[in-house]
Specification:
Length: 400
Amino acid sequence: MKIFIAGIDGYLGWALAQYLTARGHEVAGNDVFLRRAWVAEVGSDSALPVYSIEERAAAFEAHFGKSLNFRQGDLLDYDFICNYLADFKPDAIVHLAEMPSAPYSMIDQKHAVLTQQNNVIGSLNLLWAMKEVCPDAHLVKLGTMGEYGTPNIDIPEGFFEVEFRGRKDRLPFPRQAGSFYHWSKVHDSNNTMFACRIWGLRATDIMQGVVFGTRIDEMGDDPRLRTRLDFDQCFGTAINRFCCQAVIGHPLTVFGGGKQRRGFLPLRDSMQCLTLTCENPPQRGEYRVFNQFEETYTIHELADLVKEVAEEAGLNPVVHCYDNPRQELAEHYYNPDRQHLIDLGYQPSHDVRAEVRIMLADLMPHKDRILAKQAILVPDIRWDGSRRRSEVIDAEPIKS
Ligand SMILES: NC(=O)c1ccc[n+]([C@@H]2O[C@H](COP(=O)([O-])OP(=O)(O)OC[C@H]3O[C@@H](n4cnc5c(N)ncnc54)[C@H](O)[C@@H]3O)[C@@H](O)[C@H]2O)c1
């Protein structure tokens, strides 16, 4: 298949380009290196070195024997995206090109507007470009499990049967997002569903859990093929951050009591799911929703798991709870479905420990890169728009 990746230089995009190419798909993609700039803006850097796109392309060609079909360009540039899609003629488009951080979107008015402008307008441009240039292509749109929030009932995959005053219908499940970033994804979902209905586009909206991992097997040993791995409060996701903290002996920073439950999946599972989705498109006019995660865990369970694996590796980490800079329920019911991808053949890896072991081994040689940025490990972005560094509210004793 010909698969276009919007946001090919990012954490998922760079891995996906390799995973799909290794399976014989023809890949092309764009990026405008915003993730690199945003991480620098918040005073951080990737724990694993990120090479220039020229170096990445050279390694890609050496490893896969194909040149990387890449163009630098912004999804906000409508003509750029129309021209690229018209030239490439994709069967599927995986849309990853968005600002992906809740805290970043909550910094202030400027960052909230940047987030929604980049994400909502970029996605709308892509929908219009598809309608004009490649209406038969399948849009695989990355959303997030965070669109649903944490309702006190089970979470279906996008839609549910509801009975109200004696009448029944199948309706979109209510979204209760928890940041301006997550709301941008909800707006995208609505626009995508509408475009499928009125123009007959086909789309799969992926409600993805939190991804963790430093590599997929397809990357081999060339460091230029590795994907980025962030650990700051904006762009570092829970397990990735905990592993970086464990490597330098910083307390693992659990927010609040750590009883918040979320869906997680390893990078290799995310690649498997996105590939299965591309290879199994919906009918023209169909808008479907997949919940994509391996398993749900509480944040404290994950910190304890990283701690145990780190101890096996000879490290001596501790877990500390910090007052939560986010506004979210401290404890809640959480039971989302994830059957659609299983029906397509998704085989969850179920081995978080093995993945964490690989991550710690990959991160150890880059300890100095994390140490150089350790000042940014404790969060200070508050949901009310203020800045205040979180304080420890429950500290595990440090072993001597
Ligand atoms: N990583 C996760 O844990 C996770 C979980 C759930 C959902 N998602 C979603 O998956 C997608 C990809 O996530 P990621 O972790 O790879 O993020 P990322 O920031 O590493 O990748 C996104 C890429 O898109 C590019 N980009 C952003 N806006 C662009 C624009 N207007 N034009 C061109 N390029 C642009 C960025 O420069 C970046 O390289 C995001 O939409 C994110 O919300 C990620």
